[in-house]
Design a protein that fits this description.
6-stranded parallel beta sheet, globular, about 350 residues, alpha/beta, two-stranded antiparallel ribbon, Rossmann fold, 8 strands
Amino acid sequence: MESTKLFLPFFSLFFTLSLLSGLGLARHHHHQHRHLQLSKLFVFGDLYVDTGNTSPSDPNYPKTPYGVTFPGHPDGRFSNGRVLTSYAARILGLKSPIPYRVVEKEGVEGAKDGVNFAYGGTGVFKTGYDLPTMTTQIDFLQHLIANSTFTPQDINSSFALVSVSGNDYSYYLSTNGSIKGFIPLIVRVVKQIGVNLKRIHSLGVKKISITALGPLQCVPEITSSSDFKHCNSSLALLVDFHNLLLRQAVDKLNKETNDAPFFILDLHAAFLSIIQNKGDPQGSIKFATPLQPCCHGTSRGYYCGSVDEDGQKKYVLCEDPNSAFFWDDVHPTQQGWIAALTFLISAMKQHV
């Protein structure tokens, strides 16, 4: 999620979404899962999974605290360290795949564990940046298949991780989109997600995960107005409606296939549980103030890593990133992702 600071109160959506929620979640259809021997991981989406495709335009980026935990310097991951991709790869018994931008340099051997096509700031549709949308990212994979970088056997033994974390919605608001237009936008976004998932499967990928929309109402950019103490309940309505439609779309896609290739990684439930319980369910990871980011701007208009015209830091950094669930205004810390994976690991293993 690139930014949520333009999100407005959603009280006017309450009545409509309350009616829509009466539709309920589509029932799950249980299939006999066939365990796969995976050899490749393909990643699509945004900054929650990008491991180096996006080159920040800020000339001060090399001096920012991003990557302070791993690898020790900024390298394109918008966290203090590893992000969801690295841990998902470990669960699958694979190494984190190389970013797409280095595929030409690394060649077939470099792509032996797959490719990460995700770009931070991108969305399902155009988000105002000159970045590849998810559709374009899938085009990249199709091109690599066409030029024989990957064989049909490679694709048939692969897993896809797809992340949608809200950039389409923040971009819509940044262009003065109306509250009235939000419901049609959510419908369009989720419909296109369904098209994209189906297309990835049509290329031969056997298992495809899609992230539920996380609790945007709880990201520090939103909770800063309450001194990082309270989530925004009205914004939660938007998130719930997106996830309602996503669940129904995935359920429908699985009904249309014989091998139930699609499943949801429920970041929403994972993040909310961590925030509400101040840590993971085992109690092995604790976050005393889970809504408080480790790194954030000291005043309005500044962000983690920003400096003023004299090069003076305009952000504050906590002493121990492992003590924080959120790294910056919108992204988890490495420790935050580890905590979230305690919720997601069973779902991934169940479906592979």
